[in-house]
Amino acid sequence: MLPLSCAPPLPPPQSRPNPSPSHKPKPHPCVLLFPAALRTAAAAATISFSLLAGNAAAVAAVEQPSEICRGQDDGREVEVKAEAVTNEQLVEEAWEVVNEGFLPDAGSRPWSPELWMQRKQDILQGSIKSRSRAHDIITKMLASLGDPYTRFLSSSDFSKMSKYDMTGIGLNLREIPDDNGSLRLVVLGLILDGPAHSAGVRQGDELLSVNGIDIRGKSAFDVSSMLQGPKETFVTIKVKHDSCGPVESMKVQRQMAARTPIFYRLEKRDNENSSVGYIHIKEFNAVAKKDLVSALKRLQNSGASYFVLDLRDNLGGLVQAGIEIAKLFLNKGDTVIYTTGRDRQVQNTIVADSGPLVTTPVMVCFN
């Protein structure tokens, strides 16, 4: 696949309001080999969503399914219940995830294998009577790391992550500690033209209350549950714009359906016997891959000789959606993304498992 020089500018995507009056448009570089560009976008999606899914999410409690075993004596099927994970084992598993993969950075508190081992011994001195108590212990244990991206999710919280829009009004929240150690909830991402965005909420706004209830000190998941409700019902929220902006109350109508983030058109180039397939991806949500595949096939069948993929102002979204979209343009076996921990020799690598959907040149616009 070859890099292309930037073609004459195409008509820009549909305009949308700036986050703030002081926002100035950034230059739009358009020369990049496509796979590298989309890997960059996928990484951005990872960063934007990482507050929801630290390594500790892997230890969310999951009910073990029953196993059906066939006896060797008479062929009868015998149902065998999988052994349940004890509260102590759950805590120890969370400890192991950190012990094996946690990579401290400059913002974390002092950490060493010896200190972490001592914490485990202190925690497991006595019995843990309930699952909720085990969850509390894990939450506090991970909080002691001082890393905002390492957190524990219960099985119910983890299930909510299957939806990009956890709130029903088109926004995601990030927990930020204030000077007093309390949590503030700030809007991390918005679905463009979604309910919250249309009502006037902007990225970086602080959420202060939901239906008149002060939400200071509550977790992002707790508040997301407060925002959820039946489709087309209303929720009243109070937000503070920017860090020093005005406070505003607004009534927002819930809308649970995921909107397509893919917009495309076929353009004839002047003085050229070729057509350009232009595709704009607003975000990586649950329907992004399906709709992108449809757009690529329709444009190709209509005679597109090359494509322009516009990722400017993409909001990020679901990490897996970004990965699956990158695979559409990579050769089989190419690396999409990889992660490493303290042991640099151990990598978790995700590769493309099939060939590219299109083999015509692709140009990417990004900022």
Automatic annotation (TrEMBL):
<dbReference type="InterPro" id="IPR041489">
    <property type="entry name" value="PDZ_6"/>
</dbReference>
<dbReference type="InterPro" id="IPR029045">
    <property type="entry name" value="ClpP/crotonase-like_dom_sf"/>
</dbReference>
<feature type="compositionally biased region" description="Pro residues">
    <location>
        <begin position="1"/>
        <end position="22"/>
    </location>
</feature>
<dbReference type="Pfam" id="PF03572">
    <property type="entry name" value="Peptidase_S41"/>
</dbReference>
<dbReference type="Pfam" id="PF17820">
    <property type="entry name" value="PDZ_6"/>
</dbReference>
<dbReference type="GO" id="GO:0006508">
    <property type="term" value="P:proteolysis"/>
</dbReference>
<dbReference type="InterPro" id="IPR036034">
    <property type="entry name" value="PDZ_sf"/>
</dbReference>
<dbReference type="InterPro" id="IPR005151">
    <property type="entry name" value="Tail-specific_protease"/>
</dbReference>
<dbReference type="GO" id="GO:0008236">
    <property type="term" value="F:serine-type peptidase activity"/>
</dbReference>
<dbReference type="InterPro" id="IPR001478">
    <property type="entry name" value="PDZ"/>
</dbReference>
<feature type="region of interest" description="Disordered">
    <location>
        <begin position="1"/>
        <end position="26"/>
    </location>
</feature>
<feature type="domain" description="PDZ">
    <location>
        <begin position="158"/>
        <end position="228"/>
    </location>
</feature>
<dbReference type="GO" id="GO:0004175">
    <property type="term" value="F:endopeptidase activity"/>
</dbReference>
<protein>
    <recommendedName>
        <fullName>PDZ domain-containing protein</fullName>
    </recommendedName>
</protein>
